[in-house]
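Supplementary Methods, section 5.1.

A reviewer requested that the exact input to the structure prediction be made available. We therefore reproduce it here, unchanged from the version used in the analyses.
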Amino acid sequence: MNKFLTVDNTMLDYVALLQSIKKQYGAEQKATIAVGGSYGGMLAAWMRMKFPHAIQGALAASAPIFYFKNADGAPETKYFDIIT
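The structure derived from this sequence is encoded token-by-token as follows.
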């Protein structure tokens, strides 16, 4: 397993990129809203939760942020319980 291809590293890369872009355009005081669907939605929501200083809002569409294997707070079978 690659130690560099992690969700945490992905989010840190996005925060660094966002800071660089904001500095380049003089927008350091402007709010940032993360938007995404499915995996991108999960990243948007997690970024808002983990980096509130960098992401002031998130719109996560179809993002099962709690419903996946070994996740805290939601039984692994809950999705299937709902759809059946």
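Helices lie at 7-24, 39-50, 78-83. These observations are discussed further in the main text.
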